Amino acid sequence: MNWFAEAGAKFSVAFLENDRYIAYLKGFGTTLYVSFFAVLVGVVIGLVLAVVKYMAVRKKSFRPLGWIANIYITIIRGTPVYVQMMIIYYIIFNVRGFPAFLSGIICFGINSSAYVAEIIRAGIEAVDRGQAEAGRSLGLSEMQTMKSIIMPQAVKNILPALGNEFIVLIKETAIIGGIAVLDVTKAAMNVGAKTYDYLTPLLIAAFMYLIVVILLTKLLSMFERRLAKSDRR
């Protein structure tokens, strides 16, 4: 009982006292905001990279672009996201007044794009090649076939994996406090500095991440089941 009373007192100090819960909620709002827009950036860049890699296999004129795409993906996937964030914030966008959270969005968007590119490429290649041949037999160009026939069918394979990428990205943004962005992890560290107890605030932050990840995982599972039902029909 003494342990529970002590834990409850620590929770009260770390979360309720002086309305500290507001800092956690604002921080988590920043986490979701950065994650959402980073995924959008990642999908846009990743789609371009995936299409370039797909076309590079089929047309010689795209091969130089395919090499560039491969180099980009290798570098981004082969280096730590924390190092990328430091380079983007302190070197590339080292401009007075440039928002730190925007550097975070760009960094995580670029990092995510390398993984999203492979997700989209795998989804495209999962579509039967006969579909592309059918499009060409109808007089469509490579790009028209991609837009009207291949991509609509690939979307079903891509969406669940993109949902998982969003979940992973939410957790990865926990390092954004390294560039002075007040996310939920940074908020927990600030509370710990004031209360001289870092464990309780970090456990609160971890619990908030866990709840959101569980909810998103459940929603993603429901979405995948609906896609499976539509396929059977």
Write the layout of secondary structure elements.
Layout lengths: L1 H15 L4 H38 L4 H16 L2 H12 L7 H26 L3 H9 L4 H31 L11 H12 L3 H34 L1
Helix pairs in contact: 2-3, 2-5, 2-7, 2-8, 3-5, 4-5, 5-7, 6-7, 7-9, 8-9
Tell me the series of helices and strands, N- to C-terminal.
HHHHHHHHH
Task: Summarize the amount of helix as a percent range.
Answer: over 70%
Cα-atom radius of gyration:
22 Å
How many domains? The number is 1
CATH superfamily: MetI-like
Give the number of DSSP strands: 0
- Integer average pLDDT: 88
Distance between the termini: 56 Å
Main sheet: strands, sense, barrel: none
The helix-and-strand class reads mainly alpha
Describe the protein.
It comes from Qiania dongpingensis. InterPro entries: AA_ABC_transptr_permease_3TM (IPR010065), ArtM/GltK/GlnP/TcyL/YhdX-like (IPR043429), MetI-like (IPR000515), MetI-like_sf (IPR035906). The chain has 233 residues and is mainly alpha-helical. It has a single domain (12-232), classed as MetI-like fold. The protein has nine helices and no strands. It has helices spanning 2-16, 21-58, 63-78, 81-92, 100-125, 129-137, 142-172, 184-195, 199-232. α2 (21-58) runs antiparallel to α7 and α6 packs antiparallel against α7 (142-172). The model has no long low-confidence stretch (mean pLDDT 88).
